[in-house]
What does this fold into?
Amino acid sequence: MQPPLSLFSFDNTFARDLDGLYTAWQPAQVRTPKLLFLNRPLAAELWLDADALGTPEGAAVFAGNSVPEGALPLAQAYAGHQFGGFSPQLGDGRALLLGEVVDRHGQRRDIAFKGSGRTPFSRGGDGRAAVGPMLREVLIGEGMHALGIPTTRALAVAGTGEEVVREQLLPGAVLTRVASSHLRVGTFQFFAARNDIDKLRRLAEYAIARHDPDLAGSSDRYLALLRRVVERQAVLIAQWMNVGFIHGVMNTDNMTISGETIDYGPCAFMEAYDPKAVFSSIDRNGRYAYANQPLIAQWNLARLAEALLPLVVADGGEAAAQDAVDRATEVLKSFEALYQAALLRGQRAKLGLEAAADEDAGLADDWLRLLETQQVDFTLGWRRLADAAAGDEAALLGLFAEPAAAREWIGRWQRRCASEADVTPQLRAERVRRASPWVIPRNHHVEAALRAASQDGDMAPFDSLLDAVRQPFDEHPGRAAYAEPAPAAVTAGYQTFCGT
It folds into this structure.
């Protein structure tokens, strides 16, 4: 073990305030640390010295060989419903929370490893990670961040110089992930399942202090916490849906209290619009299909409500318990309206509309139905509305096998746009471009970049794709290939894997 480096200004509230909710643990030593990726903009946001982190000493830190000064590595405990089945103990089987830092905006952020070796929660797993899946977390996380969608982000990826055993031998890596916190629905389920009300209350108070401090001390704060999480998740899922993102593994241990997207394992972006789209190799029954994501989110939130109920119930006997159930149920029911409102706000922006009108939901629904029946690329279908708004319909109509149906809908949309007479065509086109990306992390490009990095040690395709997904709204001639859909034959057989 190398001597600790003073690189981070850690302030470890989780370790300090929640003793008993984790196991202190050290990352495994690796053979040959090598820095593969360093997120310099994120480092600056976290008050970190990117030049110091970019050295061999920094690589040793990011690989786990040198625990930085002030870190208190720990494996968090949590449970989770995985594909509907409850596992009372999951926990960080290959992850460690190093500590927390306060960023330039005054926000507390977790610094955590993924792939840093076995922990007491590994359940027979090797605790390791491979280069490809960890670089996938970089690409998708940075792409989501650039799209304005709340997400965990990768600070670094370090190669280990060792191989991990999956279907084949793969080069190993450790990801350093940054999150508003790693508190999950499953964290609350862990202690609720054990009827450990004291730890459950401590966890809830900690979550409130960290994510909703204005609720601290209020008499109804636990129900209010549930309401805040419902609100955040309703907005998040609507954002996923409006960019065609499919998480792929929406287990309760992968739903955060903060409202950030977490765990980019078997995720993918849809190409031709298909509400039933599933890419995850382990989602054999389509539980987490694209169109099911709002339903699953509400289901997961119901599990959070169940976990919080003992705290919501006052010491008032059976009547108080029924009242708590009724109030929690009302909060859960609010998800649908909140989600639909957020979805429609996003759709209006993508349609270039400013004011609300009763016809807008039907207009958006009919557009999606048109994309589905004509098998139009979801991203380009929305994006090419900008050209039509500016007066050039050719690129948009060229996406349709049967343009006549598209012309009818375009006429309806143009009449709706004309009701906002103060908006020029150029301004409306710009609004569409600000809301609908030109580039997303398309699956075939992601796979090609990961394959080059993993098999050949060639990071150039990864770097080029990363530059493109970090500027998703800018049409740059040199990045035109990244905007093109994959060949249909590639998309038809595409599967994603969780990497464990």
About this structure: Residues 317-350 form the longest helix (34 residues). The two ends are 27 Å apart (CA to CA).
